[in-house]
Amino acid sequence: DTEVTQTPKHLVMGMTNKKSLKCEQHMGHRAMYWYKQKAKKPPELMFVYSYEKLSINESVPSRFSPECPNSSLLNLHLHALQPEDSALYLCASSQGAGPEQYFGPGTRLTVT
Amino acid sequence: AQSVTQPDIHITVSEGASLELRCNYSYGATPYLFWYVQSPGQGLQLLLKYFSGDTLVQGIKGFEAEFKRSQSSFNLRKPSVHWSDAAEYFCAVAPGGFQKLVFGTGTRLLVSP
pLDDT digit string (tens) for B87-103? Predict the structure, then answer.
């Protein structure tokens, strides 16, 4: 089963809110990723967790805080976001250090 | 500079016609190569991948891609396009097999009746 699930599907939040995005995979993959995608643009890598440890942080602002509670789950905690943070947030996973990534359907985030 | 180029921003193809989407990369060695498809508001679906070996690779949904080392290209093809193929197509590379995927800017495929 090559499936990555993400919740919620849509999220609207104010600039003072705190919210979290969730991602789950049951493929036994040991690497998980967060991407941000603006309209009509390719995905941009934000974070990579490898074996539950943060291995890549692409200089993402601290208002985005990732968390990997276990090998199947990945969270993205959001706080004090700006309207320009509105985007589609995609989660992906891959087998170990392999480059073949499988993506979830994304969370459409709107910051008001 | 290392890069992935998809020279066509939009392509319109008639239903039933053949399709070729272009992708060129600029890296010192042959990277791992991928094609992904994204329907509006959806996640990315992996169509096919090339790591090594046979330079013509088959993917899902009737797609294939050919790796040409001499041209640093990895073009995606389909012999007969269906209306449901209308979507955004991204070429991506993983330099040296590392975890960072580098995406091209994408090609939007429109299918006309």
Answer: 999 999 987 656 788 89
| Cβ-nearest to B49 among A42, A55, A100 | A100
Within 8 A of B105 by CB-CB distance, chain A residues are: 41-42
The token pair that represents A19 in the structure block:
């919210």
- Residue B103: which of A42, A56, A106 has the nearest Cβ? A42
Subunit contact A99:B45, Cβ cutoff 8 A: no
CA distances from A38 to A87, B53, B102 (A): 5, 35, 16
Residues B60-92: pLDDT tens digits? 999 999 999 999 999 999 999 999 999 999 999
